[in-house]
Each structure stands twice: as structure tokens, then as C-alpha cells.
Design brief:
heterodimer; A: Alpha-Beta Plaits; 2 domains; B: Alpha-Beta Plaits
Chain lengths: ~170, ~150
């Protein structure tokens, strides 16, 4: 997965992905289960997870909710046209808001002027409208134009999956 | 789904990260001042209700290759057909209808940038629609979850 880890560890990491990408079993010691599957000690398994996280192959190890099922079924892709020179400051500002899940800089294109994207989520249309207003207030004059693209429906959503055969 | 207090605390506290130690639920129970059995029962209940996607590592797949956010402006009467065509690609893992002139938005992931460009060219040839190609330039926040906020 990276130049930082050895070849044998890379194949171990691949097995770890296949074993855990759909979630750990809900048992008292899930790491002991994983260690057993990987034929490692619990200590080595935890070390491997920590290394993969430290070098960025794992984003987080967490209890990942399904926000849609929790009632957060409204999402809005807010898009902003800000000066390129202001981008580092403004990107960091929007990305730090607790109701923003993703915040990215993307290129402008002919017919597409927006260069800063922030995804917001809420339980109602009013809630995401209020988040957009708040972002607009934060940006103030630094933003020349903005829009919010509300999702009308999810047509496909699958996490990336590696099959065991893909090793 | 209505959340009880423990479920809400569990998600707000541990959606960004959970203890990386033996018997992690015991440690989570200590933080939440409840029992390990209550934490496990709560997670099982959330999972059964579909409110828990999973417990475990979230992998950074984008490092493995290239990806982009793409969009098409599809005439309303063709939206269903074009959306199906787009979703057929294994390279597409998210595909959303959105209320805008550009009304179909999808994420393309592939082994390298050239692969992504070939898929976009093929889609343009097949549909006669020119895709917007908006690869990420800088990430200021990458899907670390978001706060559930006040007032359940």
C-alpha cells in the first residue's frame, strides 16, 4: 500500500482490508478476532493498524454511522467561487465547521465557476439551508457567487470493495 | 430512527475514532460511564436498525489510484437511462441525482488518471453529453463524519 511498509506487510495489509472493510464482528474483543484471522498476536495486529493509520492508508478506526438511517437524509453540495489566493484560509474555515463532512478545492471549468466545495447534511431542507446561510456569512465578501446542489436521489452508493481474489 | 442518549453519545464520541486497545468496548464503556455489555448491546441495536454502517477501519482508497468528481447535464427525459449507464461502470461508486443544470453527479475511481479520462471520453461518446471533470486539488476535510448536533 505504500513505500513505507515492506512487501510482506503489504500483503498482510491487503488481507486486513478484505477482513475488515465490511466491519468487525460485534464481539468483546474484535482485535483478538482479527489477530486470529491474520495469525498474528494482538499486539502485532494493533501495531499494524497504528502504522497503517499513521502513514495514511487508514483514515480512521471508528463506529461509522449510517447517517441516512439516523434521519440525516438531506444533503447539499455547497459550491463557492472564492479568490484562489484566499483558498487556503477559506478552505480551512469551511472544513472546520462541525456540520461539514467533506470540503475540497476543485478546478474551475468553462461554464463552472465554483472552486470550493463543502458537503452539508441535515434532517430537513430547512436545516441544510441554514448551514448554507452560515457558510455564506462566514465567507462574506470573499465569495463572488455560490450555489447549493441538493440531492434528489441516490442512484448508486457503494463503498469501494476489494474482493479476496483481488489480492 | 430515534436515538436514545447512549446511542447518540456513542456515535458523537466514537464516529471519528475508537480506542485501539484490547477490549475496546470496555474502554468506551468507561468513557461513557456505562457497562461494556450496554455498549455492545447499543451497537448491535444500531446495526440491526441499519443505523450503524460498521465498526472498524475506514480505508483511504484514493491513494491507490486516481479519482474525480464528474457531472453531466442530462435532459430530464433521459436522466434515468443515462444514470443507469453511468452506474454500470465499476469505476463509479457514488452516483447522485441533484437539482441543477448539471443534474447527475458521480465519483469515478481508477488505477490512474488516464483510466479516468478514458471512461469520461467513452461516456461522452455514448451519451453525447460533455462531462464536467472536477478532480480534488486540496482536501480541507475528508469524510470524518459530522456532529449529530442538538435536538434529536
Amino acid at each position: 500500500m505504500s513505500v513505507c511498509i515492506s512487501r510482506s506487510e503489504s500483503s498482510l495489509a491487503q488481507r486486513l482490508v478484505v477482513l475488515t472493510q465490511a466491519g468487525l464482528p460485534l464481539v468483546e474483543d474484535p482485535w483478538a478476532w482479527l489477530a486470529g484471522e491474520l495469525e498474528l498476536s494482538v499486539e502485532s495486529t494493533l501495531d499494524l493498524l497504528k502504522r497503517l493509520q499513521a502513514e495514511g492508508a487508514i483514515r480512521r478506526i471508528a463506529a461509522v454511522p449510517n447517517h441516512y438511517r439516523l434521519g440525516y437524509c438531506h444533503n447539499g453540495m455547497t459550491v463557492w467561487d472564492v479568490r484562489d489566493t484566499d483558498m487556503p484560509r477559506l478552505g480551512a474555515l469551511l472544513g472546520a465547521q462541525p456540520f461539514v463532512s467533506h470540503c475540497y478545492r476543485r478546478p474551475r471549468r468553462p461554464g463552472w465557476r465554483y472552486n470550493l466545495f463543502a458537503m452539508v447534511h441535515g434532517r430537513s431542507r430547512e436545516e441544510i439551508d441554514s448551514y448554507r446561510e452560515h457558510l455564506r456569512y462566514l465567507l462574506g465578501d470573499a465569495c463572488a457567487a455560490d450555489d447549493m446542489l441538493v440531492s434528489s436521489r441516490i442512484l448508486k452508493k457503494t463503498g469501494l470493495r476489494l474482493s479476496p481474489a483481488a489480492r | 430512527m430515534d436515538l436514545d442518549l447512549l446511542s447518540r453519545q456513542l456515535i458523537d464520541r466514537f464516529q471519528h475514532g475508537m480506542p485501539l486497545c484490547a477490549e475496546p468496548y470496555l474502554e468506551m464503556a468507561r468513557v461513557l460511564s456505562c457497562s461494556e455489555a450496554q455498549v455492545l448491546a447499543c451497537l448491535q441495536r444500531l446495526e440491526l436498525a441499519g443505523a450503524l454502517s460498521r465498526v472498524g477501519p475506514v480505508f483511504e482508497h484514493s491513494r491507490a489510484g486516481a479519482s474525480t468528481l464528474a457531472a453531466l447535464a442530462v435532459p430530464a427525459e433521459r436522466l434515468h437511462q443515462v444514470a443507469e449507464r453511468v452506474s454500470q461502470y465499476p469505476e463509479v461508486n457514488h452516483n447522485y441525482g441533484r437539482e441543477h443544470h448539471y443534474n447527475l453527479w458521480f465519483v469515478l475511481t481508477g488505477p490512474d488518471r488516464r483510466h479516468i479520462e478514458r471512461v469520461l471520453e467513452e461516456l461522452e461518446r455514448d451519451t453525447g453529453l460533455a462531462p464536467l471533470d472536477l478532480p480534488m486539488l486540496t482536501a480541507y476535510r475528508i469524510d470524518l463524519g459530522f456532529a449529530l448536533g442538538e435536538n434529536p
